[in-house]
Amino acid sequence: MVVNARNLKRKEKVTKPDLKVVEKSKVLTKPYNDIDLNRWKEYSHIKTDTLWEFPARLKENGHSYDYHGNYIPQIAQQLYERFTKKNDIVLDLFFGSGTSGIEALNMNRRCIGVELKQELVDYVSEKFTKKELVTDVNIICGDSASENISEKIQARLDILGREKAQFLILHPPYDDIIKFSDKKEDLSNCSSTEEFYDLFEKVARNGFDKLEKGRFAALIIGDKYAKGTYYPLSFGCMERMNKAGFKTKAIIVKDIQGNEKAKGKDAQLWRYRALYGGFYIFKHEYIMVFQKP
């Protein structure tokens, strides 16, 4: 049988689909996460819209509601899977009760946390093993707005073998709504909202300095009413994040109903106050996502 050029061309056409199958089987990911975009339909649990609703706070896998003002673990789960890779380092400059560190361990990430109160650092440290406190979760007692915190963070990054962090979380006090300590460095003790913004910007700049280029940051914050006036803390802090060098990527509205301790009889009291004072009761907070150019 004579094989002519026409037959050769037909054979080539038959083999091309097989090559495409091989190409499609390759993993396609972004530099900042492990999501395989060739299998994107399998990630239906990852939120891509700007309204987040969670029926209740998770109280498992090391999490508990043992400290007022901590954010719910589901936020960390969503942000970590979307903006980090396994073994990446999360930097949390308002570490609090350790939600960021606990979920980092659960999801095979690592975490460096900065917390102002030594007693809280001691308490939270008990949630981790001595080995984890060296290899996976490093907690620094310090002021996140100070000039010398950068050096302390860098020392921990060196221990973990990275030059910069790969994700930044900022969950500051909502101005003076809740007093977290008697320390003057505490953002909840600022004499004015403008001072709160100024101190927050210093924290944001420290975070910007320690974040890897091209990587992401998240700000978790709500607004406040005081003396008959509405204060949009979220957008004020967003402006300061932009001044620090971050580029705004998303503004997510999160429903806080069901994620807080039950208010019981206070719910009706707040309804009366709202009707009397001409304001509305908060049922949401914001998660703002930024990127370091």
What are the key terms here?
293 residues; two-stranded antiparallel ribbon; 35% helix; 10 strands; alpha/beta; disordered N terminus; eight-stranded mixed β-sheet; 9 helices
Could you characterize the architecture of this molecule?
- The structure is a single chain.
- Helices cover 35% and strands 19% of the residues.
- It has helices spanning 5-24, 73-83, 99-106, 118-125, 132-135, 149-159, 193-210, 233-244, 266-277, and strands spanning 51-52, 89-92, 110-115, 137-141, 165-170, 211-221, 224-226, 229-231, 247-255, 284-291.
- It is α/β, with parallel strands linked by helices.
- The longest helix is centred in the first third of the chain and has 20 residues, at 5-24.
- It has 9 helices and 10 strands.
- Helix 2 (73-83) crosses helix 3 and helix 7 (193-210) packs across helix 8 (233-244).
- The strands form 2 sheets. An 8-stranded mixed sheet has the order 1-9-10-6-5-2-3-4, with helices on both faces. A two-stranded antiparallel sheet has the order 7-8.
- The model is unreliable at 1-22 (pLDDT under 50).
